[in-house]
């Protein structure tokens, strides 16, 4: 029930379900691939793989000491458990098809602990403490659970090294959609989807753009690519204004700018083969057809970790992660300089999500791509971004170095987004103090006066209701639009930090 929701709405849904459970005395079966949510709401956990139960345990025992390699792999794949800047751990391979289950342990072809005995026959469920596991080596293996530790001390790496020149420079970018009503379709108002944002991305770097659904992130991405026309502002790509280009010049410029959409299935033509889908930009822009096109498509599939034997298959024959790799291959077909990823992992399971993030990081390092990575989960954005910009109701409210924004949020909205991220530790999850935002983002048709966040901000003051806060740059280099900027958001007189240990051992 929370898949692909932004973290603040997810927190509201989980709070609602817990309240209903208490009021009506309900039992609940919660099906999910998000282990952070499992740690927050569940008492016991059943782990399924390839159609059968591989482990059952109490939630505390499972996160502390898993007894099946698949459970360990899922826990290790969570972005919140990996050190920043390092590749995320993944489970190699894919879940087998139901008509091709392997003999013996169904997980053994992907298991790093597998031996010959694992493929010799059916694996029974064995009792382990108060739980069960379908691993005959569970007593031999020292499997590890999640380790929730304090963050490393932040060091501004770019203070000693000058940032490269920006490849993308956006200034005052705005988009207003007219609202029509009546028989004559008169314009009765305007939806301010994007309202004067400024951002830049240095060559070869990644900017993470985060915010709730309805913040204007996807609209900003389409404005940057000029898939929709801006109301005001400029978009400079390597010094050239995209918004002022004519049709033929824009067509040539589009070779340098590509996008990966959120849902790979809806962005891929179900009636076209992978060769036709990935090869389409090669035909349109380069006139490449036939065997030459297919050879280039095969190279692209190799680049994203898929085999060239898949050229004649259709999108429905692939998993979600494989389809997203195909979408990435199509975006790379013309060797772009700027790649925009619009929530490319929000609906993927945790291991597949880690594979896509690692793929994008590796491609950026190998090809020198400049990336705009859009998401609503700061724990995901942290691992792929050099800088993070936080967007709320059409405006940028905070922007700074990724680790600084993640570990020391300066705007209350950023602190709330971090607070809503489930912690992969049931004990800490039960006692941690959270900022749960109430209600939804106000309508961009009639945004609030003053600070646009003040209607939901737990720290709002009188000045916030009528004065729009100007941007302020802190000593750490973060730019924030908040009247509390000098102290940052505070709880009980103390600065808010999601990862700072509190009295009683919580975080």
- Fraction of residues in helix: 25-40%
Distance between the termini: 26 Å
Rg calculated over all Cα atoms: 24 Å
Number of strands: 18
What's a concise summary of this model?
The protein has helices at 7-24, 35-41, 59-64, 69-76, 217-224, 247-253, 264-267, 274-286, 290-303, 320-332, 350-367, 378-384, 402-407, 412-419, 426-431, and strands at residues 44-49, 52-58, 126-128, 131-133, 166-181, 186-202, 206-210, 232-237, 240-241, 257-260, 338-342, 370-375, 387-392, 395-401, 472-473, 479-480, 490-491, 494-495. It has 507 residues and is α+β, with helices and mostly antiparallel strands.
Description:
- The protein is α+β, with helices and mostly antiparallel strands.
- The protein has helices spanning 7-24, 35-41, 59-64, 69-76, 217-224, 247-253, 264-267, 274-286, 290-303, 320-332, 350-367, 378-384, 402-407, 412-419, 426-431; strands spanning 44-49, 52-58, 126-128, 131-133, 166-181, 186-202, 206-210, 232-237, 240-241, 257-260, 338-342, 370-375, 387-392, 395-401, 472-473, 479-480, 490-491, 494-495.
- The protein contains 15 helices and 18 strands.
- Strands 10-11-12-7-13-14-16-15 form an eight-stranded mixed sheet, sandwiched between helices. A four-stranded antiparallel sheet has the order 1-2-4-3. Strands 6-5-8-9 form a four-stranded antiparallel sheet.
């Amino acid at each position: 029930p929370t898949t692909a929701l932004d973290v603040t709405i997810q927190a509201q849904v989980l709070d609602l379900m817990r309240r209903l459970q208490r009021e009506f005395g309900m039992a609940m079966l919660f099906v999910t691939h998000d282990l952070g949510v499992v740690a927050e709401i569940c008492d016991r956990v059943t782990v399924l793989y390839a159609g059968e139960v591989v482990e059952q345990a109490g939630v505390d025992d499972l996160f502390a000491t898993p007894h099946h390699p698949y459970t360990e792999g899922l826990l290790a794949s969570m972005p919140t458990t990996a050190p920043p800047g390092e590749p995320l751990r993944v489970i190699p391979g894919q879940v087998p098809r139901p008509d091709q289950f392997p003999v013996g342990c169904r997980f053994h072809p992907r298991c790093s602990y597998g031996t010959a005995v694992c493929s010799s026959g059916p694996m029974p469920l064995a009792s382990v403490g108060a739980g069960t596991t379908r691993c005959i080596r569970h007593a031999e293996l020292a499997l590890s659970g999640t380790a929730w530790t304090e963050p490393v001390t932040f060091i501004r790496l770019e203070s000693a090294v000058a940032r490269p020149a920006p490849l993308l420079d956006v200034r005052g970018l705005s988009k207003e959609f007219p609202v029509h009503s009546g028989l004559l379709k008169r314009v009765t108002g305007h939806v301010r989807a994007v309202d004067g944002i400024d951002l830049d991305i240095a060559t070869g770097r990644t900017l993470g753009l985060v915010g709730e659904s309805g913040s204007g992130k996807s609209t900003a991405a389409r404005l940057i690519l000029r898939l929709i026309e801006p109301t005001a502002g400029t978009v400079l790509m390597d010094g050239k204004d995209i918004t002022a280009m004519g049709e033929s010049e824009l067509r040539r410029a589009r070779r340098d700018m590509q996008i990966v959409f959120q849902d790979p299935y809806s962005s891929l033509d179900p009636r076209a083969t992978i060769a036709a889908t990935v090869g389409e930009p090669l035909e349109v822009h380069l006139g490449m057809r036939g065997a030459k096109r297919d050879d280039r498509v095969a190279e692209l599939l190799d680049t994203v970790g898929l085999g060239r034997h898949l050229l004649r298959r259709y999108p429905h024959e692939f998993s979600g992660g494989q389809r997203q790799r195909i979408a990435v291959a199509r975006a790379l077909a013309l060797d772009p300089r700027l790649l925009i990823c619009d929530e490319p992992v929000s609906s993927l399971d945790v291991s597949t999500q880690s594979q896509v993030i690692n793929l994008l990081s590796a491609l950026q390092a190998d090809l020198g791509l400049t990336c705009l990575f859009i998401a609503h989960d700061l724990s995901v954005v942290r691992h792929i971004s050099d800088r993070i910009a936080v967007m709320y109701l059409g405006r940028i409210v905070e922007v700074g170095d990724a680790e600084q924004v993640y570990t020391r949020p300066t705007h209350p909205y950023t602190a709330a987004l971090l607070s809503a991220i489930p912690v992969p530790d049931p004990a800490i999850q039960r006692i941690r103090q959270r900022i749960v935002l109430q209600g939804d983002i106000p309508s961009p048709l009639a945004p609030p006066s003053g600070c646009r966040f003040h209607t939901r901000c737990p720290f709002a003051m009188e000045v916030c209701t009528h004065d729009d806060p100007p941007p302020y740059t802190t000593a750490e280099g973060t730019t924030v639009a908040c009247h509390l900027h000098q102290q940052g958001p505070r709880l009980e007189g103390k600065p808010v930090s999601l990862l700072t240990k509190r009295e009683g051992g919580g975080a």
